[in-house]
Amino acid sequence: MSPRKAAALRGAADDRTLRDHLVTTAQRLLADQGAATLTVRGIARAAGVADGVLYNHFPDKDALLAAAVRAHVDAAHRALGPLPAPGAATVERNLRAYLSAGLALHRAVLPVVAGLLATPAVLTRFTELPTDQPDWRILLARYLNGERELGRIAPDADTAAAAAVLVGICHDQVLATLLPGMSPHPVDADAVITTVLTGIAPRTERA
């Protein structure tokens, strides 16, 4: 191993590659300061390597940032831990868990993604990178469909609409904190889940 690489990886795990080190460094900088002021030189200095080292592993800065975003999003999904399976506990309790996980995920991911809206090429490359982490939205949709198959929610329930409500709440709660002069409306998670499960039409119309 070269002295430069050894310096860059000092204190890191033995099996950490230089590419992984660069991605981790860029991921941390994205989370801490956003993408607007990130430069190749800044990433290289934070990683403890010469500027040109980045180009040994990535064709350009956008490719490195896309890999860093992918790592950040995957880490946020892993942090959610296992989510309830259909048939476990109660539907109400499980949907609370999914909503809580969705809010945590969006709080971790949206600020980073929002900081890259001015560089759509990075986001395009990010979506093209493989991942072994199932998306929270897909897990939520599968959960609702599974409960419908088990008969724990109505057989004609529009699970896609129910999922859209929960996803929309997560977007609203986080995006409002990113826009100047806006703040999220207070949301009672219990009230949200109750509304999703019971609907808002008069009971005589639902009967």
UniProtKB/TrEMBL annotation:
Database matches in PROSITE patterns: HTH_TETR_2 (PS50977)
SUPFAM superfamilies according to UniProt: Homeodomain-like
Transmembrane segments: none
Location of the DNA-binding region in this protein: 39-58
Keyword terms, alphabetized: DNA-binding, Transcription, Transcription regulation
InterPro entries membership: Homeodomain-like_sf (IPR009057), HTH-type_TetR-like_transc_reg (IPR050109), HTH_TetR (IPR001647)
Pfam family, one: TetR_N
HTH tetR-type domain ranges (all copies): 16-76
Single Gene Ontology MF annotation: transcription cis-regulatory region binding
Name of the protein in question: TetR family transcriptional regulator
The organism's taxonomic lineage, starting at the top: Bacteria, Bacillati, Actinomycetota, Actinomycetes, Mycobacteriales
